[in-house]
Amino acid sequence: MATKSIRVLFFIFLSSFQLEFSDAQTWIKAGYWLAGREFPLSDINSALFTHLICAFAEVDSSTYQLSISSANQQYFSIFANSVRRKNPSIKTLLSIWNGQNSTYQSILGNKNINPSVLSSMVGDSSHRKSFIESSVRTARLYGFQGIDLFWLWPNSTDSNNLGILLDEWKASASDQPELTLSMAVRYSPTHETVSYPIDSMKKNLNWAHLVAYDYHMPSKENVTGIHAALYNPSSNISTDFGIREWLRRGFPANKLVLGLPFHGYAWTLVNPNDNNVGVRASGPGITIDGSMGYKFIRAYIQNYGYGAAPVYNASYVVNLFTSGATWINFDGVETIKAKISYAKEKNLLGYKAFQLSNDDNWALSRAAQIEENNDNDKQRLLLLILLPIALVLILIASLICYFRRTAIKSKGRRNLRTPGTSTQAAEYFDSDAPNLQVFSFSDIKAATNNFSSANKLGEGGFGPVYKGKLPRGQEFAVKRLSATSTQGLEEFKNEVSLTARLQHVNLLRVLGYCTERDENMLIYEYLPNKSLDLYLFDPIRRYVLDWQKRVNIIEGVTQGLLYLQEYSNFRVIHRDLKASNILLDNELNPKISDFGMAKLFRKDVDEANTGRIAFEQWKDSKGKEFIDPSLDDSSSPCKLLNCMQVALLCVQENPEDRPSMLEVSSMLKDDSMAIAAPKRPAFSAKGDENAETSSTSRQEIYSFNDPELSQLEPR
Ligand SMILES: *[C@@H]1O[C@H](CO)[C@@H](O)[C@H](O)[C@H]1NC(C)=O
Ligand SMILES: *[C@@H]1O[C@H](CO)[C@@H](O)[C@H](O)[C@H]1NC(C)=O
Ligand SMILES: *[C@@H]1O[C@H](CO)[C@@H](O)[C@H](O)[C@H]1NC(C)=O
Ligand SMILES: *[C@@H]1O[C@H](CO)[C@@H](O)[C@H](O)[C@H]1NC(C)=O
Ligand SMILES: *[C@@H]1O[C@H](CO)[C@@H](O)[C@H](O)[C@H]1NC(C)=O
Q1: In contact, 100 and 117? CB cutoff 8 Å
Q2: Assuming Cys at both sites, which of 107, 161, 189, 371 could form a disulfide with 122, CB separation 3.0 to 4.6 Å?
Q3: Contact 268, 326 (CB under 8 A)
Q4: Domain shared by 14 and 48, yes or no
Q5: 604 catalytically annotated
C-alpha cells in the first residue's frame, strides 16, 4: 500500500517535473539560413537556436514535386548534420518558397512573383500528392525534422485548397519519425486579399510564423514608413495589429511565432530636414531597393555617421538613423529585446529570425536570448529547489521498493529513431539560377539586330557588347563572351547568379544570361552615357566632368568597391578596374561593370603604368603638373592632391602597404585625416595574386536583404 502511494507520488512528481521541462523547451528560437549565398554552414552558431530553417526549395511547375536547385543541393543535403555539430538538440526544417520559376523577374527589375504554381499544386489532388510525397521523402532523406511552407498571398480559392493540403500533408508527416510542419504567413490574416484556412492551420501546423516586416518599402512608396513597426499610432499596418487579428480570428497564440527582420531599409528623403515617419521620399537609398542587412547598417553608421547614432523610438519600436538625405529604419538590439518581451507577454510560441547572415557577430540573435534568460533563471531556480527533493524522494522510494523486492519499472525514454541522414542525393532536381532571366539565343539575336555593328557598344575585355531592344521597347546591354569560361555550364550559371545578387547603386545590374548554342552571354542594364574613359580621355567631353562630378564618381566607385569587398554576400575582388569599366548613368553616377568576372575567367591583367609617372611627379612635389588644369577644387571639401595621394597609396608595390577600401573611404571623407606618404607603385599585377587568395578564403559575409526577399511584396 505504502509502495503504491509512493509510486503514485513519484510518478506525479516526475510527470509534473517533465512538464516543467518540456514547457521550457517549447519557446521556439528559429532562424533562416538562405542556401548558397551565405556564410559557411559551419559558422552558424546553432547553440543560439532551437530550430534552423534551410531555405529555399521550390515546387516544380510541371511535376509539382519538391525541387531543389542543383546549386543548392549540396547545402540541403548536409544542412541538418552540419548544424547539429554545435547543438546536438537542434531541429532543422526545410523551407519551400512560392514555387516561382526563373523567369518571374521581368527584365528591368519589375519583380513579379508567380504564385500560380502553388495555386495549381494545391488545387488538384494528384498534384498535391506529388508534392506531399516528394517533400516528405526529401525532408527525411536529408535528415530534416520538419518542413516549412512560405506562402504569403493565398487568395480565397487557394485558402480552401490549402486547408485540404494541410490535412493530407499532416497525415503523411505523422508517420514516424514525425515531421514538424510550419508555415510563413502575412503579419495579418485580413490584409488586402489574403485568406488563410485558419481552422486547418490550427489543427495541422506546429506553428505559423509571421512575416512581420517589409510593410513599407522605399522601392514601392514615396512617403517614408517603418517596415517592421510593432505599433503604429496612425495606421493598422503594424505587427501588434496583425497579431491581434490572428488571435481574434481564433488562431491560438501558442502556435504563433513572431518574425524578426535582421534587415532594414534606407530611404532617400526629398527634404533632408524633414526626416520623420510619413514624409516625402524620392526612393531607396544606398542599395538598389534600399534594403540593408543589420551588419551592413552598423558598418554604414560607423563609417558615414560622422558620430551620429541611431535612436530607438518606443512609439513604433524601431531604431532610426538619419544622415543627410538618407533615412534608415531597422531592428537594432533595443528593438529586438522589446519585441521578444512583447512575444512573451502575448504568450506567443517564440520567434524566428530572417535571416541569419544579416546579423552582426550574433548581436541580434543574442539580444533575442536575453529576455528569455530571465525565464530560464526562474526555471533553473525551480530546478535547483526541486531536484534535491526529487532525488531524496526517488531514493526513499527505491529503498522501500528494494526492501519490498518490488522493482520499479522505470519509464524508458521514448526511443526516437533518428531519421535517415544519407547525404547521397537520391534525386536530381534541376533548376535555373534564381532571380535571373534566361534569354533564348533567338530573342537576343532579334533584339540586337543579329549582333549588327550598329548595335555594338564596344569591345570589352571579355568580348563585344551590344545594345539590345526587346519588342516591348526595353533596352539592355548584352556581353557576348568570347573568352572560354574556365568552368562548366553549371558553374557558369551559378557564378552568374551569385554576381546578380550583388546589388548596389554603384554596380551595373546583371539581368540574365543566355547559354544556348555554346554561347555564354550576359545581359545587363543599359546605360546610355557609356563609360568613364570616353569622357576622361576626350578633349571636349572631359569638360563635362567638372571636379564636383568627378568627386561624385570617385565616391560612387569607392562605395561600389566597398560593397563588393566588405558588405556583399561574397567578397569580390574586381581585379580589372579601369575607366572603361566604370559606366555612367543619366545623372553621371558611376556603376562598376565586369565585377565577378575574375572568378569566371582567367585573364592576365596588365596594370597601366600611369601610377609610376604620377608617383615620380609626386615625389618631386610636382603632383599638380599631372593634373588636368581645367579642374578646380577650390570650392570642394575634397581636394585633388589628396585624392591623388590616396590613389597612389592604392597602387603601392607591396599589397600589405595598400589601404583597405574602408580606409580609402574614410581618407576621402575626412579631409583632416593624415594621409600616409605613398611608397613606390607596383608595375605589374603579379603581387595581387596572393592578396586575392588570402582575402577570398575569408569569404566575408555581409548580406543585405536577399534579392528574393524583395519579391515578398509588402502588405
Ligand atoms: C515561368 O513562368 C512564366 C510566367 O508565368 C511562364 O511564362 C514560363 O513558361 C515559366 N517557365 C517555366 C520553365 O516553367
Ligand atoms: C486565386 O489565385 C489563382 C492563381 O493566381 C487564380 O487562378 C484564382 O482564380 C484566384 N482566385 C480568386 C478567387 O481570386
Ligand atoms: C507619390 O506616389 C503617388 C502614387 O504613386 C503619386 O500620385 C504622387 O504624385 C507621388 N508623390 C510624389 C511626391 O512623388
Ligand atoms: C483598423 O482596424 C480596425 C479594426 O479592424 C478598424 O475599425 C479601423 O477602421 C482600422 N483603421 C484604419 C486606419 O484602417
Ligand atoms: C517616435 O517617432 C515619432 C514620429 O517621429 C514621434 O512623434 C514620437 O515622439 C517618437 N517617440 C519616441 C518615444 O521617441
Answers
A1: yes
A2: 161
A3: yes
A4: no
A5: no
Shared-domain flag, residues 410 and 503: yes
Query: Looking at residues 494-501, what average pLDDT do you find?
Result: 74
pTM above 0.90, yes or no: no
Pocket test for ligand 1, best of 61, 67, 120, 437 (most atoms within 8 A of CB): 61
The CATH number of whichever domain residue 401 belongs to comes to 1.10.510.10
Decide if 651 is inside a domain. Answer: yes
Structural domains in the chain (count)? 2
Which residue's alpha carbon is nearest to atom 3 within ligand 4?
236
Pocket lining: 630 vs ligand 3, CB cutoff 6 Å: no
Q: Is pLDDT above 60 for 491?
A: yes
Task: Please give the residue that has the higher pLDDT: either 492 or 514.
Answer: 514
Q: Does 410 have pLDDT greater than 70?
A: no
- The answer on 674 and 553 residing in a single domain is yes
Residue 177 sits in a domain whose CATH number is 3.20.20.80
Catalytic residue selected from 576, 594, 633, 706: 576
In a domain, 269, yes or no: no
> Which whole-number Å values give the CA distances from 479 to 468, 569, 574, 582, in the listed order?
10, 24, 17, 15
Distance of alpha carbon 678 from its chain centroid, rounded? 38
- Return the bridge partners of 510, or none: 524
Contacts of 185-188 spanning 24+ positions with Cβ under 8 A = 185/151, 185/152, 185/209, 185/210, 185/211, 186/152, 186/153, 186/210, 186/211, 186/242, 187/211, 187/212, 187/213, 187/215, 187/239, 187/242, 187/243, 187/259, 188/236, 188/241, 188/242, 188/245, 188/246
Same-domain status, 126 and 9: no
What does the alpha-carbon distance between residue 184 and residue 212 come to, in Å, rounded to a whole number? 10
pLDDT level of residue 5 (50, 70, 90 thresholds): very low
345 and 428 part of one domain? no
Ligand 5, closest atom to CA 316? 1
What is the model's pLDDT at position 71?
A: 82
- State which residues form the domain around 47: 24-263+331-370
- Do 68 and 18 lie in one domain? The reply is no
Question: Quick one: 130 and 1 in the same domain?
Answer: no
